[in-house]
């Protein structure tokens, strides 16, 4: 079981990386699932003292019978440093007996900007049957591992998440409410095949209708957030690894989609088992909104629109037109109309796709919603 990694570049000189890392370690040490060992695989950044912090955990961990492995480097090229013989690695004698409860816990602290690479290295350098993700700047509740493990054992092909408590209190309020309040069926939504709602940025995109029952789309990313993930190692190896493109890559969303493509489930423990820290240097801020938009539109085209002969876009305004322009030419031709309730838009009669290279320019009818027909892509902005 892997108990964590950092989320990229947050720990820099003067950012109290040592304080956050210590809290993460203490929360890991206090877990309630007994019988495992903890392996700390650290590649501390040379700009702070996180290596010393990790070393400071050793005595406290070993007093509880928990083994630690610490490796590190100060290279600006982490891929080479991790694989080179110059990495400083200490392996305790008890590592040969880490499966005392068929679980292996490891905290992976890779304080670099290659977030996907960090996660993949954590998996490679641990050996347990289950992986529990824990960012170094977050704090888990004592019962987290036990509760998620109990769910994962019965859902071997699922990504298991949990609810969170956001700190500072009130930060990203709508996002936090979305994380915690999605109903179980909307984590992995099933439906009749006639309606998909596309909620615009900062809310969500949920499929109410795939026909296959395996479609989830969200402008936030995965419906269970990555710092809460828990899954079997076998399932990770089937759907992974994480994309190692580095800064700006939505590696969690890409792996989440990979899991869905292979029929994976999504389950959430409805308890706030993680203190999810918000700060401006989090790696998630390097992923552009447009990147997320393009990924989810592409996935929608792949999984849903490829099965439809035609459809209607509900919203002739900005978001509906943006969605139309984001479609590939094949799916643009499937759009039979826009529909709306705004009389001014309806009076215009059509939307002209001026950016098209076709001659004449495509003109899409704009209808009142009572005159339109399914299936629908509904583009709306929620304000609640």
Task: Supply database-style keywords.
2 domains, 21% strand, alpha/beta, 13 helices, Spore Coat Polysaccharide Biosynthesis Protein SpsA, Chain A, three-stranded mixed beta sheet, transmembrane helix, hexosyltransferase activity, Nucleotide-diphossugar_trans, 16 strands
Question: Can you describe what's shown?
Answer:
One of its GO terms (molecular function) is hexosyltransferase activity. It comes from Electrophorus voltai. Keywords: Membrane, Transmembrane, Transmembrane helix. It holds the Pfam family Glycos_transf_2. The two termini are 38 Å apart. The protein contains 13 helices and 16 strands. It is elongated. Helices cover 31% and strands 21% of the residues. It has 2 domains: 276 residues, Alpha-Beta Complex (Spore Coat Polysaccharide Biosynthesis Protein SpsA, Chain A); 73 residues, no CATH class. The longest helix has 15 residues. It is α/β, with parallel strands linked by helices and 384 residues long. The N terminus is likely disordered.
